[in-house]
Amino acid sequence: MTLPVAYEDERLLAVNKPSGRLSVGPTDPADLSVQAEASLQVGQDLFIVHRLDRGTSGIILFAKDAETHRRLSSLFESREVQKVYLALVLGHVDPRSGEIVHPLRAFGSGRMGVDPRGRPSTTRYDMVERLPATDLVEVRPLTGRRHQIRVHLYQIGHPVLGDARYGDARPVGGAERLMLHAQHLTFPDADGEPVTLRAEPPEDFLAGLRAARGR
Question: Which has the closest alpha carbon to 34: 203, 185, 182, 208?
Answer without folding.
Answer: 182
